[in-house]
Write a structure and sequence with these properties.
One of its GO terms (molecular function) is biotin carboxylase activity. It is a single chain. By secondary structure, the protein is of the alpha+beta class. It has three domains: 100 residues, Rossmann fold; 61 residues, 2-Layer Sandwich (Dna Ligase, domain 1); 243 residues, ATP-grasp fold, B domain (D-amino Acid Aminotransferase, Chain A, domain 1, 2-Layer Sandwich). Helix content is 34%, strand content 28%. An eight-stranded antiparallel sheet has the order 13-12-9-10-11-14-21-19, with helices on both faces. A five-stranded parallel sheet has the order 3-2-1-4-5. The longest helix has 19 residues. The chain starts with a strand and ends with a helix. The site of one adenosine-5'-diphosphate has 12 residues, from β11.
């Protein structure tokens, strides 16, 4: 069935991104919103808007019944879930299918299989993809953990099978610490994700986070190369690049091939990301999880491949076969994305909503700013702090960094504190410039090297 109309079950910059992609394909667009979001940009851009409930996400964006009812009422063919919220909720995908509508993403079965991080490890291993040394399946009790850690050594990570968004992960450096953490981790996972299941992974020290973008049509699957997202704070990505500057060609080939093998083994349909840790010294990569949705950092892949991933998702969901063959995907140049959050770098990144008093956005070749901001818009306090993503593309990494620094200086967001000064400081750091970073780089760097107030005059 061809999709002629689409409802966007999300908010913020990704809702804007999806509305624009759908409009570019000539589709009728319906945007849902909470009572706090009536004046958001995606509502203004969409053909129609539907109020689905109070500001609390639990009562609006996470309310399956309300979202599906809005879609039926509006008479749309399909629903795009964006990222976060219900995007990786198998019950949501199933409810949409049961209502006779199209969920733009993989099947409910694929979401529940790959969304369970323990089952996903099994799927990866079965497809011949190396996983992080750790437990086979869930850890039932301390005795089982003792056997696993005797094999892996310490430190280990205690991870929630249902975790996501950087939450549900603890580190234990010894068995004593493990015994203390284990019940807390289980209770926390139960409260946060409704599932207390835990598993163990060895900590891969000084690893890089690399991830492969995949597209599948249920039969065939291809990759669109990798992204590197090693600059993280609290296990949340802050800055992302494509391609990774650390991978030798043979490792890149093996990494990307492994993601395709995994996707094909489950008949993956839609866009997805296979995440790995890369141990540069050992030249080894290890699977960590699959995200069965569009990812925040998808634009860097679009910049280096020229493929519009959101449009591809819509096409595939409408029953289309992959229009791209692997040999059509060419890697061109280098792209970097900076997440611009409404957080104050000088006050330990405390989120600070507010009204946008002025906005000046950099333009020009190789510059893209994905955002929901406009002058006069009031950022509500109820949701994620992401305001937009500055993405820069150029011929190589060095040229990209130069272009990025200028674009960051030219991005002026008045009315609230943002993470622009952090990104400017990162641009000027020697280790970032040479790409000598890993997932534990940023947090100590913030303590030791970052002067949040330096350079503030440039972003005022
Ligand atoms: P990406 O890997 O695409 O960068 P993130 O981990 O940054 O994704 O998550 C994207 C958004 O989705 C964030 O707003 C994050 O808080 C939210 N998110 C991701 N997974 C979950 C989850 N399991 N539960 C709740 N929120 C989540
Ligand atoms: P989430 O589902 O919250 O995205 P992930 O399993 O993808 O969780 O891990 C998030 C981040 O935590 C990784 O990008 C990495 O920085 C860190 N991490 C996860 N597993 C390990 C590990 N075994 N060793 C070292 N770091 C890890
Ligand atoms: Mg992850």
């Amino acid at each position: 069935m061809t999709i002629r109309s689409l409802l966007v079950a999300n908010r913020g910059e990704i809702a804007v991104r999806i509305v624009k992609a759908a409009k570019a394909m000539g589709l009728r667009t319906v945007q849902v919103h909470s009572a706090a979001d009536a004046d958001m940009l995606a509502v203004k851009l969409a053909d129609e808007a539907v109020d689905i409930g109070p500001p609390s996400a639990a009562k609006s964006y996470l309310n399956i019944e309300c979202v599906v009812a809005a879609a039926k009422e509006a008479g749309v063919d399909a629903i795009h879930p964006g990222y976060g919220f219900l995007s990786e909720n198998a019950a949501f995908a199933q409810a949409i299918t049961d209502a006779g509508l199209i969920f733009i993403g993989p099947s409910a079965e694929a979401i529940s299989l790959l969304g369970d991080k323990v089952k996903a490890r099994e799927v990866a291993a079965a497809a011949g993809v190396p996983t992080v040394p750790g437990s086979d399946g869930l850890i039932a009790d301390i005795e089982a953990a003792r056997a696993v850690t005797a094999r892996t050594g310490f430190p280990v990570m205690i991870k929630a099978a249902a975790g996501g968004g950087g939450r549900g992960i603890r580190i234990a450096a010894s068995m004593e610490e493990f015994e203390r953490q284990f019940p807390l981790a289980s209770a926390e996972a139960k409260a946060a994700f409704g599932d207390g299941g835990l598993y163990i992974e060895k900590v891969i020290e000084r690893a890089r986070h690399v991830e492969v973008q995949i597209l599948g049509d249920g039969v065939d699957a291809i990759h669109l190369f990798e992204r590197e997202c090693s600059l993280q704070r609290r296990r949340q990505k802050v800055w992302e690049e494509a391609p990774s500057c650390s991978l030798p060609a043979d490792v890149r080939d093996a990494l990307c091939a492994s993601a395709v093998a995994l996707a094909k083994s489950v008949g993956y349909k839609g866009a997805g990301t296979v995440e790995y840790l890369y141990d540069e010294d050992a030249g080894a990569f290890y699977f960590i999880e699959v995200n069965t949705r569009i990812q925040v950092e998808h634009p860097v892949t679009e910049m280096i491949t020229g493929v519009d991933l959101v449009q591809e998702m819509i096409r595939i969901a409408g029953g289309g076969k992959l229009s791209l063959r692997q040999e059509d995907i060419r890697l061109s140049g280098h792209a970097i994305e900076c997440r611009i959050n409404a957080e104050d770098p000088a006050r330990n990144f405390v989120p600070g909503p507010g009204t946008i008093s002025s906005l000046s956005v950099p333009e020009g070749e190789g510059i893209r700013f994905d955002t929901m901001l406009y002058e006069g818009y009031t950022v509500p306090p109820f949701y994620d702090s992401l305001l937009g993503k500055l993405i820069v593309h150029s011929t190589d990494r060095a040229a990209c960094m130069t272009r990025l620094e200028q674009a960051l200086k030219d991005l002026k967001i008045g009315g609230l504190a943002t993470t622009v000064p952090l990104h400017l400081a990162l641009c000027r750091d020697d280790s970032v410039q040479t790409g000598a970073v890993h997932t534990r780089f940023l947090e100590p760097w913030l303590e030791e090297s970052f002067q949040p107030d330096a350079g503030l005059e440039e972003v005022a």
